Amino acid sequence: MSSFLDGLIRLRRGPWEMVASILIGLGVVMLMQPFVMGLYTYSFIVILTGTVMFLIVSHFPE
Amino acid sequence: MTDSPVDKLARATPQPVARRVRGLSDRAIAWIFVAPTIFLLLAVNIFPLIWTIRLSFTNFRANRPNREVEWVGLRNYERILTDSDIWLTMQATAHFLFWTILLQVLIGFTIAWLINRNFKGSAFWTTVIVLPMMLSPAVVGNFWTFLYQPQIGLFNYAVSFFTGVDPSSFSMIGSVNLAPWSIIIVDTWMWTPFVMLICLAGLRSIPDSIYEAAEVDRASPWRQFWTITVPMVLPFLMLAVLFRGIENFKMFDLVVQLTGGGPGSITELTSINLKREAFEKWRTGYASAYAIILFVTVFGLASIYVKALNKVKER
């Protein structure tokens, strides 16, 4: 866990890609869940944030 | 001595052109070769994408090209993301995605595991199992509509044979409860071989020495399965899940042929709904925003897919 946080602070690709992947996954779940309309409404912004973040952080050093 | 085609081509090149090419650097020649592909990519992929993004902020209708186009900002996105009908479509897609992936992974892995045991005729059965994957989705959709016919369909007779239910008492495509399962069954039938092939590649990549070492340590077959087979096949399985997830998110042809989105809109997946908005209701701006939402979602999933692929390659 501490190496993960350390990677985030030092702007390393692995942990940041993990965060972006979690955001994309979370957004897809929000988009398709049948329970809360509010989650569906904000799903796209979460997916978009994750995707843009993924594009940016994939250029970070390993 | 006969001339090679290259020599003939060199001789056929007009002198002024030949002189000009000889003066070019390797980099410039490389650009000349690559330029047509780049131009084609820009014209066929990038330009339509940018145009769609622009249209998604307008109220443009393709069936009224002369009407003044109004800039509506994020209104199309707001309407889509608060529309309960589109939310239901997303749920129908989620139901389809969840069950197709689950069934394909379970059945595909089991078949791959059985075929990997190299019994007599395993190569023949691999070929037979892979056949559905080679068919066109439109053809598959068409012949499954016949198989699902309550009066003459083989599927209903097979269900009747095993359960004793009257074959004409239920309609897979016509029933609101059964129609979502009808498309899941067909997609599973068609794409399980794909998952099986990926799992088979994973299973065959495990060296025998690992199992031999486990046997020396007196690990039971059950233990070997959970501590060697599953962890080593998992990256391949993950790849298959992501690949099928992205493909099924875009599913169109098979479902259109099979149910056309019906009965009602119970099997209307996002791609079918999008096509209706764009080419039946002609709300091009709205449909463009819808397409961008789906594109970003698939692009995000594809990013994870590429990352997973790189991890598998590193192994």
List the helices and strands and how they pair.
The complex is a heterodimer of chains A (62) and B (315).
Chain A: H1 2-9, H2 13-32, H3 37-57
Helix pairs in contact in A: 1-2, 2-3
Chain B: H1 5-12, H2 15-22, H3 26-55, H4 75-80, H5 84-115, H6 122-134, H7 137-147, H8 154-163, H9 179-204, H10 208-216, H11 221-249, H12 253-258, H13 270-279, H14 284-314
Molecular structure report:
- The complex is a heterodimer of chains A (62) and B (315).
- Chain A is 79% helix and 0% strand.
- Chain A is mostly helical.
- Chain A has one domain.
- Chain B has two domains: 39 residues, no CATH class; 233 residues, MetI-like (MetI-like fold, Orthogonal Bundle), CATH 1.10.3720.
- By secondary structure, chain B is mostly helical.
- The chains are: A mainly alpha (62), B mainly alpha (315).
- At the A-B interface, helix 2 and helix 3 of A face helix 5 and helix 14 of B.
